[in-house]
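FIELD: query
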Amino acid sequence: MGKRNLQNVKILLVLLISCNALYSQNKTIVPTKGAIVFVKKEIITDTVLYKKSMEKVFDKLTLEVKKHALLEKGKVLDTINQRDEQLYPMFDMIKSVALQQVFSKEPKSIIKFHHSYNNDEIEEFISSNGQYVEKKKFINSSDLKDDDLLIITKVEEFKNETKIIKQFKCYKVVMDYFDLEQPPGLNTIVNVMELWVTEDIKSNFHPFITSIDILEKYFPLEAKHSIKDVEGMYTTYDLVDFSLK
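FIELD: result
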């Protein structure tokens, strides 16, 4: 075989391998086996800015609680006052814990979110420094339940912004939402979640995303969470293990 023909064969083999790799990357996965794990990290980029903005947010929350109490009608005033007396110390405690994280020299816990698939059964658990802190099982189809305490107010897609995560082509989606599970005041905080999503994994279950509206469209493989008006700090969710099939 001539050198030119041999070179052509090599080029053809490279093209075939590349096409096959591209096909395998774009093949849609409906998971029945394997696992997916994310690690959560809180990142503080500016301690002074974070402290100042946190104090402003909690001052605003206190005013929201007072406003909420004034608007409530048909309730006994003593009951409202009793509830507010419980909320204000709680706000102070949350603010104190949040600010202590800035100055603490203790190593932070490594929090991971796990999903393990075994046919129709999914095992979900959270681990802290390798120790399980929360664990449950559910059936892939029958246990489907949307999070009705998560109110999404805005979803924006940025399909021109892309990157590859674990061989999946992903694009950016940003959503704003309220968490109604939080007590009065805290449930008025606007949460912002920047997601990197793929459309090549189809599952209505996810280790830390619970909105069916999101999961019916895409599957997040990376996330960045922040709170509107809180500056100098954000939380990331990075994919550390993936073997879904």
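FIELD: remark
The longest helix spans residues 77-103.
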